[in-house]
Task: inverse folding
């Protein structure tokens, strides 16, 4: 039986239907990522929700791959994860989940200590760190580069040494990466630990200029 669960005033990206996990323990299993996704759900995490005679149980994870594994094993009812990963999973047959809403619309920044960078054009010949090839930040950043006539394969070096949000933010904080594409609250956390770290470019503003404010930047 197809199950739908909507929470008024609560924006959730994906929710499960027919998931055997919730039937076993009588709870809605909700998987959330640390960062913007979790921030958008603070009220629900603190207060919880109920429906169909079941309570909610929230679990917070560090990386999208952890949530991806739960989806593949059908061990979560409601999940938040990057938009591109959700699309890939759906096309690979993980179809018990359907799109409910998009809670994070663009909180990506180019952050670092290289204050000579003030615009996208200043990135020519520079090295920019990204957390994972093919992840949402990588896709968005490459698109922005190309829209500004910068070839991501020739005009700039994209480095994928640091695999996750926390690892990349820590590298920027410690000076092991001069700049990288990260989201809030990681930008603020890095700046609080190292005052030399700045939000160099607001990528959402660049995106809005490209699309004349007509197409929002979907993130999670």
Result:
């Amino acid at each position: 039986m197809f199950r739908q669960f909507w929470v008024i005033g609560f924006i959730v990206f994906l929710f499960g239907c027919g998931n055997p996990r919730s039937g076993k323990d009588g709870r809605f299993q909700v998987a959330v990522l640390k960062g913007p996704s979790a921030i958008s759900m603070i009220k629900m995490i603190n207060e919880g929700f109920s429906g169909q005679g079941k309570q909610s149980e929230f679990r917070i994870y560090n990386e999208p791959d952890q949530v991806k594994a739960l989806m593949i094993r059908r061990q979560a009812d409601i999940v938040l994860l990057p938009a591109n990963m959700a699309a890939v999973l759906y096309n690979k047959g993980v179809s018990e989940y359907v799109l409910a809403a998009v809670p994070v619309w663009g909180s990506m920044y180019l952050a670092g200590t290289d204050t000579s960078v003030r615009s996208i054009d200043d990135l020519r010949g520079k090295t920019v760190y990204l957390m994972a090839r093919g992840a949402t930040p990588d896709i968005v950043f490459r698109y922005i580069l190309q829209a500004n006539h910068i070839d991501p394969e020739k005009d700039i070096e994209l480095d994928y040494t640091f695999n996750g949000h926390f690892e990349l933010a820590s590298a920027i904080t410690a000076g092991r990466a001069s700049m990288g594409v990260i989201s809030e609250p990681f930008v603020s956390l890095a700046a609080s630990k190292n005052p030399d770290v700045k939000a160099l470019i607001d990528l959402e503003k660049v995106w809005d200029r490209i699309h004349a404010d007509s197409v929002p930047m979907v993130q999670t």
About this structure: Confidence is low (pLDDT under 50) at residues 1-20. The chain has nine helices and eleven strands.
